[in-house]
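Its record is quoted verbatim for completeness.
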Amino acid sequence: METSDWRVSFPQALVEFLPTHNSDNNPFFMSCFKSHTRKNNVFHFQATWISHPQYDPIVGDTWVNTSGNWLMNIGKVKEESIQFSSHVFGNIFKN
């Protein structure tokens, strides 16, 4: 079955690649039905952030000042990015 055939057969399918833990294999989560509750938790990086002069220091400072593993650092950068976007750009989907 080709990819396009698979997408037509399972239009609501969702595949998420999960973080690895001391392995070179990538686990993934696959659901054939879209979860309406998870949609609100999906993080979308906005390319316009990198064009703003204040964004690069936020990422660098957050990464350096967060203690823990890379997964914790990414989570903190995600939180700071969301706050930055809200403060600087507002609701881009509404605007």
